[in-house]
Amino acid sequence: MSKVISDIKDALACVESGHTVLVGGFGLIGAPLSLIEGLTEKDVTDLTIVSNNLGESGKGLGILLNQNKIKKGIGSYFTSNRDVGDKYQKGEIELELLPQGTLAESLRAGGAGLGGYYTKTGVGTDLAKGKEEREIDGVNYIFEKAIRADVALIRAHKADTLGNLVYYKTARNFNPLMATAANKVIVEVDEIVEPGELNPEEIVTPFLYVDTIIKAQQVLTKEGVVNK
Amino acid sequence: MSKVISDIKDALACVESGHTVLVGGFGLIGAPLSLIEGLTEKDVTDLTIVSNNLGESGKGLGILLNQNKIKKGIGSYFTSNRDVGDKYQKGEIELELLPQGTLAESLRAGGAGLGGYYTKTGVGTDLAKGKEEREIDGVNYIFEKAIRADVALIRAHKADTLGNLVYYKTARNFNPLMATAANKVIVEVDEIVEPGELNPEEIVTPFLYVDTIIKAQQVLTKEGVVNK
Amino acid sequence: MTSMNKTDMQHLIAKRVAAELEGPCVVNLGIGIPTLVAEYMDAGNIYMHTENGLLGVTDVEEADIDPNLVNAGKLPVGEAIGASYFNSSDSFAMIRGGHVDVAILGALQVDQIGVIANWAVPGKNIMGVGGAMDLLVGAKKVFVTMSHTSKDGSSKLLKECTYPITSTRSVDMIFTELAVFEVVDKQLKLVELMPGVTIEELRAKTEADFIH
Amino acid sequence: MTSMNKTDMQHLIAKRVAAELEGPCVVNLGIGIPTLVAEYMDAGNIYMHTENGLLGVTDVEEADIDPNLVNAGKLPVGEAIGASYFNSSDSFAMIRGGHVDVAILGALQVDQIGVIANWAVPGKNIMGVGGAMDLLVGAKKVFVTMSHTSKDGSSKLLKECTYPITSTRSVDMIFTELAVFEVVDKQLKLVELMPGVTIEELRAKTEADFIH
Fold first, then answer.
1. CA-based, 20 to 30 A from D28: which of B66, B89, B147, C176?
2. Is the dihedral of CA A110, A114, A119, A123 positive or negative?
3. What is the ipTM, given to two decimal places?
């Protein structure tokens, strides 16, 4: 069965209410814009979204937020969307704020079958409250748990039909990590090529991580997001 | 000051008795053969060597072993050199055996500024003896500490003069990890090119990890190791 | 069972294991009998992972041997279409993280709940473990291949392992020249006898309890 | 000090920080005043890291802007010769692992042992932290740039931070429009007064104790 699917609805069939969903991107850069839009059109609720931010006000994941589909957000910078603060104030959303490096590392740990790890980041700050602290060789660390999810929605530059992925410039960011840390991984790409067209030394995400591939229908340009 | 050095003695000037030294390679594949030979010619002792194996009998790190320069070996597969067992039996060397994935992960953790991590690997086995066990979300893990070293000796395929590195096929193995986990990183390469000649999307080890670059004087061929 | 030379026996086992692999899937092959499994697999649909850093292992012709392209046994291999290279921590992240479908390993002993010993022998120095423990905890399924008995004729399927175990995890299937077992609810279950083997012969040569 | 508009003040600080950077080194620039430092650096010898995944950041001409090539402030940047791209965990491994020489950050407050607060304001929702905490624990040196006083004229160099701290680690140097401080043995040490500033003026506008 081919991993390449043409209908976004089919690609997102595996997303269910209550799921934890990883969403790639740093702001709009490298975000799976078509899949996010697909999600806003799907009837799901109580999602836990793991993403560096929750979009912008009324854009991307921000739409999902305003649709009250998000029960909890896990990220490092919600400041980019003022609606998140309002919802939080009203008790309509739970938030877990992590340092950006901890968010990235916890995803990697989840993908790599680790239970958690000790990081220096955050020691002695408000974000360490309630977290175990431990001294290792004279340095203080806090314990952070691995993150795993039901589904990952990511964006890459090219995929071959097996599912090998390469990325483009700073649109890489969280995407390769999220590809490793979910039960189902759905990727949207600019271009789909045949196996053998990507150089084996350059492949960033080997195909065993990828379940479903769709062609991106939305692209980030200088002028903003445009439909292809 | 250029990172490119022509004399192996100069490249190895930073290695001192008592140092912990990471040595790349999986057997001879991807091992820094010229730097290892340079080390056998240097007057140092009490080294702790972190490497998947300690060479073969009388070859590579095996020479260093027979010169009694190694106080301790940390690796995953010493079986490839029968002399290691003899030395160990006589109490002439300390050994720390780690699963191969744990060895790799501990090096990555050391390079990434983590104190340690919890892995499933080894739980309930003799290699978990004395290690802290912890249940996380219903799964048992053991604690493994990060590894850092004074010096790393690694091999890559190409370097640019800034120190960006790319590798070649399965000669990559532990080398990119070791490049991150030592105070001084010395790399031998097949070819040195100008900055800009390596594709920014393909660079595996960014230059900030590399201190010294030398041209390899020994190469692994079908017929074995040959001098260039 | 009629007597059989070692090579034939190994190929018999390898062929039987290969029949159990349903593609598309990613398989990691250990050293020894597992290596032979590649000869009998559907190469168009089954992809091989080697823990030293390659997904997409194939055979290689003598003329094309590259000394820097090897498998975990340090034997020369080739590169499949769609292959990719990665470092050792990324490779074991794939294994430990549950992204490899099947690991096929050799074993020294298997106990009757499917726990195996395959890395150390008591009384000898503990010198090497390689990727065995990682594969045991990480692969979605673990298949074990081994000769049914030791050189002295004693069963390698035991009530309890006397050698140090590789993991507390039970393997999924065991393939010997006498029989194929599945591990179900921490019990060995006989799936089939190999051609020419009787249940009496199997019982006589098996210390472990099994159901069928 | 004669009065100065905000832009001139920011450039004054940025220029002074740039003079402190000795290449070759790798520098991570935060948002705000730090971004301006790039204009005054020796670009041939100082390499810029941005935590969203690029080593080798440069300016970009309007015509060459690529929407998928941005810095941590999501502003368009260019790619230096010898640049490389990496994922977020590799990027923060560089930061946390001590491989970035200098981080230049903005701050809301600095206390008199050099601990800073730059990510949250009490009474407001704690909504964003980004890479600040990672840079604080990981960079070999941390330089802070900020205006010396708040809009209400109160000192931002305090005996103790009243906002949530970013790290227990003391920064290495602090640059304001009035002075440059080093942190030595957990004490602020005045390195120099900015042009036209008197020690009396500095004392009047600084709550934190400092030595010189």
1. B147
2. positive
3. 0.97
